[in-house]
């Protein structure tokens, strides 16, 4: 099996729409306004609140941060999140960029009132300008507004050197650094927390999503209003690269039985 065959077996069209492909190539992202139904969003929000209350900070979180609640290992914890696994634009974008790919990770982030500001960063390193490694779908479970911590994005920056890449996504043994030493070195900001020329603030209805080439420079902003802003991050990586959350290490019998053979291939898990 390969990724294209897996998508076909899942009933997912493997072809990315021409307009979306052009946006991904040019801007590094595209927006889909109605990826999930209101009922699916409500169920996922309720499940996120239930699980985080039960774990009370004891759950496995790959990238904890002050000022926000995060939940990782979603699919082992609840089948409520399963609908995101068959979102056609995400899977088709991963197939377009990588040919063969696998699940990289999934988490939900909920910035608290007054919190959520992040340095401008790209999620993964690159060896050169077009060394694409990750697709990140930013799935809005609540409406994303200008006052509740919208994601800021610098269109076209996926073609620049990687910037402030989180250490957990670096292979330090391979000499990878947080900042790329290729391409236009004048692009790096003096202050990664400050507004950047040309950045936009992403707004999106609940159920919408932005599908990004995760080399794109982006970051969270402060939740000024204090209103809920739960966002599910779903990432896929090239088949030859390591997962952020190694699914086989956390695989439960319930999840394995729930997955179809095609999904097991995309999760990169076995019995």
Q: What does this molecule look like?
A:
The chain has one domain (3-267): Jelly Rolls, CATH 2.60.120. It contains 8 helices and 9 strands. It has helices spanning 3-9, 18-27, 38-55, 74-77, 88-98, 247-250, 253-258, 261-267; strands spanning 29-32, 68-72, 101-111, 134-140, 152-153, 200-201, 209-213, 218-219, 231-238. 25% of the residues lie in helices and 17% in strands. The strands form 2 sheets. Strands 1-7-4-9-3-2 form a 6-stranded antiparallel sheet. Strands 6-5-8 form a 3-stranded antiparallel sheet, with no helix packed on it. It has 271 residues and is of the alpha+beta class. The radius of gyration is 18 Å and the shape is globular. Helix 1 packs antiparallel against helix 8 (261-267).
């Amino acid at each position: 099996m390969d990724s294209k065959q897996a998508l076909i077996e899942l009933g997912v069209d493997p072809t990315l729409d021409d307009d979306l492909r052009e946006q991904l190539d040019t801007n590094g992202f595209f927006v889909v306004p109605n990826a999930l139904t209101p009922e699916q969003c409500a169920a996922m929000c309720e499940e996120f609140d239930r699980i985080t209350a039960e774990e009370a900070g004891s759950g496995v979180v790959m990238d904890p941060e002050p000022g926000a609640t995060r939940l990782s290992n979603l699919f082992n914890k609840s089948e409520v999140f399963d609908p995101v696994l068959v979102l056609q634009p995400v899977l088709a974008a991963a197939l377009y960029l990588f040919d063969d790919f696998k699940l990289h990770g999934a988490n939900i982030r909920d910035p608290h009132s007054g919190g959520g500001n992040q340095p401008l960063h790209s999620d993964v390193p690159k060896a050169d300008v077009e060394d694409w490694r990750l697709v990140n779908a930013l799935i809005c479970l609540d409406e994303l507004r200008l006052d509740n911590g919208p994601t800021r994005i610098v269109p076209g920056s996926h073609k620049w050197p990687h910037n402030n890449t989180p250490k957990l996504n670096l292979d330090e043994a391979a000499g990878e650094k947080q900042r790329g030493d290729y391409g236009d070195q004048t692009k790096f900001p003096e202050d990664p927390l400050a507004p950047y020329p040309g950045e936009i603030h992403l707004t999106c209805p609940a159920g919408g999503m932005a599908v990004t080439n995760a080399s794109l420079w982006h970051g969270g902003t402060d939740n000024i209003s204090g209103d809920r802003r739960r966002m599910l991050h779903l990432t896929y990586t090239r088949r030859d690269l390591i997962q952020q959350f190694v699914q086989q290490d956390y695989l439960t019998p319930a999840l394995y039985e729930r997955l179809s053979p095609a999904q097991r291939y995309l999760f990169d898990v076995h019995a």
